[in-house]
Specification:
It contains 18 helices and eleven strands. It is mostly helical and 473 residues long. The strands form five sheets. A three-stranded antiparallel β-sheet has the order 1-2-5. The chain has a two-stranded antiparallel sheet with strand order 3-4. Strands 6-7 form a two-stranded parallel ribbon. Helix 10 (256-263) packs across helix 12 (304-320) and helix 17 (430-441) packs across helix 18. It is elongated and about 110 Å long. The relative contact order is 0.08.
Amino acid sequence: MHLGGLRTALFNYLYAKSHGGKFILRIEDTDQERLVEGASEQLYKELKWAGIEPDESPWHGGPYGPYVQSLRYEIYKQEVRKLMEDGRAYHCFCSERRLDLLRKEALRMRQIPKYDNKCRHMTPGQIAERLAKNDKFVIRFKLESKADEFQDMIFGKIVYFLAQNEGDPVIIKSDGYPTYHFANVVDDHYMKITHVLRGLEWQISTPKHIQIFHAFGWRPPQYAHLPLVMNANGSKLSKRQKDVQLDHYRKMGIFPQALLNFITQSGGGFDRNLNDIQGTQLSDLIQHFDIKKINAHSSRLNPDLLLQCNREEIEYQLKNCPERAKALVEEVIRLVREEYAEENSLDLNEKHVREVLEWAVSRIGTLSDLIRGKLAFLWILPKGRKDKTIHNSVLETLANSLSDETKVQFEKTDLKQFLRDFANQHQLAFDQLMKALRSCLSGLHEGPGVGEMMDILGRTKTIERIRLAAKRK
């Protein structure tokens, strides 16, 4: 699943929930040649990860199952028989070679390639003769030659002359399985589907679906066709793009709610600016979803918003959800242990991790940002004091001074001035003191300035590390 598919699923979910309805997940696997083993299970896992739980599905069951089309084969056979008996569908024995020649000739004549409905005019005797020979056939639906119109919930009135642009469509393939168009109509009817929100690319097929509904005497659902979601450069999202697949974002450390908030930032669909809602949650999306507010033109993703949405979600969890905040601390601990598996001296006290998160929440995009590079000192305890130019007693005096909250505010600017004053009082070279403190606090040659490092570690941890270094010989 990529972001376009996630948005379609999300908007179906939001529409259903905002109207007290049910969100249905149906596995459409009638194209047997394109089946990928495990794909439907992966689809369900990704929806579940995103928090978009279906009310009815192959995994939840429901009153109108089965929810896998390949298990509904007998239903389709029964329904197509009705269309055959009513004269709205017919056998077609045209070979792939003939159809290919039709396409090529149409292109040569600069016409729209379409089936010429030849087999529609076969006599019962001719059909019986071909069937007796076991000739390969498909079943086609007879299109009506009229203007097809329907009310799109997003685009308004749509008028399309289907029969002028297409030949009679195949509804049952030569392997006996229904096409997408036929199976969807039958299933939407029997599953009592009232609304269908789907991608704009399906809008051209909707008149076909409505004609099939009417041929059965059934009432079609209401349709809304969602405009395309584009890449930042205006290109169409593709399933082949790894950087728009859900798995990519999950591995990046993007939280599910942050990803949902990200895809709602373009294209409208809400009765207020969701940026005004701190820590937007799924309940907020349901409450403010308004299909009338969806823009009728394609929208572009703004990649700069992704990390902002993730940052806001981390902050929301940390401040408002004790259980999720605990999970954040546990995840940081897991990431640190994974990154520094060879280190045997890590500072992973839960209180320390929580304090680091609270300091960092406005500065990071993902939890992984806390783990690598210049922030390694947060987790790796110095193994020894490499710089011994400053006497241990001086370090102990410094630790005592830092513990007095009346003497220094623990903020990098104040700390830097305090350390300058301390160096002057004890007749120390400032650079020498800074080098010694870096050795005490991190043991690393790189990282933030000493004042910023102390600010990040906080008063307690800073004093703890300085005193530990002062005890080392």
